Amino acid sequence: MIELLVFLCTLAGAFTTYRLAKLPKFNVIRASSALTILFYFSALIIEKWLMAENIIATSADIAASIESTETYSAEFWATVFFGGSFVGMSAPHRFSYYLLTMSSLCFAVIFMLLLPLLEGVGGALGCSAFISVAVSHSLRLAGNKLKGA
Amino acid sequence: MPVVLAAAVTGLLGSFWHWPKKFGNHPQAAIYAGAFAGMCSSAIITGWEALLFISVVGAGVYTLTRNIFEGFGGRLGAIAFTAVSSLVLLRALF
């Protein structure tokens, strides 16, 4: 379930950044940063609301929910979205929606498997996004070559 | 303040900073790349020397790769990661 949410969150970050960057007065940097700030505060509001809902739950439920809230906090989801927005910073003339979806999927896998090993290293998130974009681009080139052969 | 929010705010403020047109989007991109590098934990960036080293290496890598991988998402993050990794590697070697 968490894996699916991570993928959907990445996809949301990538697609919204990709679309917003095309608008006048926006560029990829402004789109990525503004959307991440917006997403962080939205996630924070949802987190607070969920915590308030837990007041009526049993103590065992509260303990379990506090543990999950600490692991999957607003910051965690904002980090996922931020990573997705890096994927969405790709140029439209090079990357289609299909490639963006593939890159997002690739990023979600890297995020779940590799990023915990690189915690606290600046740029690891962006580097993972770059690897996922490069992988999907390479797959497209390989596919085109196979079609041509 | 969470690191994600700090980096995003830095990038957003940097995007509103007006530079001469001849520089294009490069100053804003460099600020954003610097914000990614600054997402390090305090165990890596121990002082201003470390910050200066990351900035110099990052600026060098950015300048050298300006025309490579253009339009690839995550390029700025990869530059920041290279700068931070070089610091970690240097510390491990000496």
What characteristics describe this protein?
A: mainly alpha, 6 helices, 77% helix, globular, B: 94 residues
SSE blueprint:
The complex is a heterodimer of chains A (149) and B (94).
Chain A: H1 2-20, H2 28-53, H3 59-71, H4 74-87, H5 97-113, H6 124-148
Chain B: H1 3-15, H2 26-37, H3 48-64, H4 75-93
Helix pairs in contact in B: 1-2, 2-3, 2-4, 3-4
Write structural notes for this entry:
The complex is a heterodimer of chains A (149) and B (94). Chain A is an all-alpha fold and 149 residues long. Chain A has one domain (2-148). Chain A is built from six helices and no strands. Chain A has helices at residues 2-20, 28-53, 59-71, 74-87, 97-113, 124-148. In chain A, helix 1 crosses helix 5. Chain A is globular and about 60 Å long. Chain A starts with a helix and ends with a helix. Chain B has 94 residues and is mainly α. Chain B has one domain (3-93). Helix content of chain B is 65%, strand content 0%. Chain B contains four helices and no strands. Chain B has helices at 3-15, 26-37, 48-64, 75-93. In chain B, helix 1 (3-15) packs antiparallel against helix 2 and helix 2 crosses helix 3. In chain B, 38% of the residues are buried. The mean pLDDT of chain B is 86. Chain A binds chain B through residues 14, 27, 29-30, 32-34, 36-37, 40, 75, 78-79, 82, 86-91, 93-95, 103, 119-134, 137, and chain B through 2, 4-5, 7-12, 14-16, 25, 28-29, 32-33, 36-41, 43-45, 54, 69-85, 88.
